[in-house]
Specification:
The chain is of the alpha/beta class. The protein is 38% helix and 14% strand. The protein has twelve helices and nine strands. Helix 1 (13-24) packs across helix 12 and helix 4 (79-87) crosses helix 5 (101-109). The longest helix is centred in the last third of the chain and has 23 residues, at 284-306. Bound molecules: phosphoric acid mono(formamide)ester (CP) and norvaline (NVA). The site of phosphoric acid mono(formamide)ester has 9 residues, from helix 2.
């Protein structure tokens, strides 16, 4: 069966374990020999485009990049027809989309002929979550993702696509997750995407206090206050989230040796201050490094099934 990587929730524990393992083990540089991977970006990107391109190249394949203004998903032609076209020439398409539903529409339209990889949608950023798990495992557990069980991870700010994928990935590994966000910016309980629905030994706490979320945490994570697509709300968001900035006083509430994570791009002075982002607790450049590891893991896992 063709493998897709659309959300962390949809992956079995076994598949996630395989992806984590394949992300950091020696690889065959002919895994994708002579094969193309379509990269479709409806939104801007630096890390995701760079890590996808690098990983495909290292596995022996090549990428073709399609930007939103060239391809016009649902404006120049339907997402279904874009999918059908790509499936005639590519076995794998990796996409950054405005609307998560695009994945299911393309999957159905192509009859599962082409593997789909989510490179960020409005609800999920699963390749980022894989990189974040690898980064935490490297720092706290000598690379063993299962050694993270019992760790306390706090997320502060707007609960975004990144937050959701991260929370699900960590809860499944037995990590305790606290999310501090103001009312209206929290993960919505009872919704389809709520990680509380995901079974796993980790404990999820949601709170409207940044201080409560961070108290005693081993790691503190934040993301943009104004995610892509929310630019019209920038003023309101800066006002509503002002008490959820990760700064030095907030980091002091966490454990003494707590680390700082951010998916980037950072908006210095909004969700994060310079001293924390550039300080000794920051693991953000290891997260960037592991974006490539994560892509290697996902692509190798997809190919494993196809070979
Ligand atoms: N973290 C991340 O996805 O970065 P880009 O938007 O630059 O790809
Ligand atoms: N939540 C952010 C993540 C960027 C990598 C966004 O969607 O813009």
């Amino acid at each position: 069966m063709t493998r897709h990587f659309m959300t962390i929730e949809q992956q079995s524990l076994r598949d996630l374990d395989t992806i984590y393992e394949l992300a950091c083990s020696a690889f065959d540089d002919e895994t994708l020999k002579g094969q193309g991977v379509a990269l479709v970006f409806e939104r801007p990107s630096l890390r995701t485009r760079a890590s996808s391109s690098t990983a495909v190249h290292e596995l022996g394949g090549y990428t073709t990049f399609f930007s939103d203004d060239e391809i016009g998903l649902d404006s120049r032609e339907s997402a279904e027809d874009v999918g059908r076209t790509l499936a005639e020439m590519y076995a794998i398409a990796a996409l950054r989309v405005r609307d998560h539903e695009t994945f299911e529409r393309m999957r159905v339209a192509t009859g599962d002929r082409m593997s789909l990889v989510n490179l960020l949608s409005d609800v999920a950023h699963p390749t980022q979550a894989v990189a974040d798990v690898l980064t935490l495992a490297e720092h706290f557990a000598e690379g063993d993702v299962h050694g993270l069980a019992g760790l306390e991870v706090a997320y502060v700010g707007d609960a975004t696509n990144v937050t959701r994928s991260l929370a699900v990935a960590l809860l499944r590994l037995g990590v305790n997750v606290s999310i501090g966000a103001p009312v209206g910016y929290q993960l919505s309980p009872g919704s389809q995407e709520n990680p509380a629905e995901v079974s796993g030994p980790g404990r999820l706490v949601v709170t409207d206090s940044a201080h409560e979320a961070v108290k005693g945490a081993d790691a503190v994570y934040t993301d943009a206050w104004v995610s892509m697509g929310f630019e019209d709300e920038a003023g309101d968001r800066r006002r509503d989230l002002a008490d959820f900035r990760v700064d030095a006083p907030l980091m002091k509430v966490a454990k003494k040796k707590a680390v700082l994570l951010h998916c980037l791009p950072a908006h210095r002075g909004d969700e994060i201050t310079d001293d924390v982002l550039d300080g000794p607790a920051s693991l953000v450049w290891r997260q960037v490094f592991h974006r490539r590891s994560a892509m290697l893991g996902v692509l190798r896992w997809i190919k494993e099934e196809r070979s």
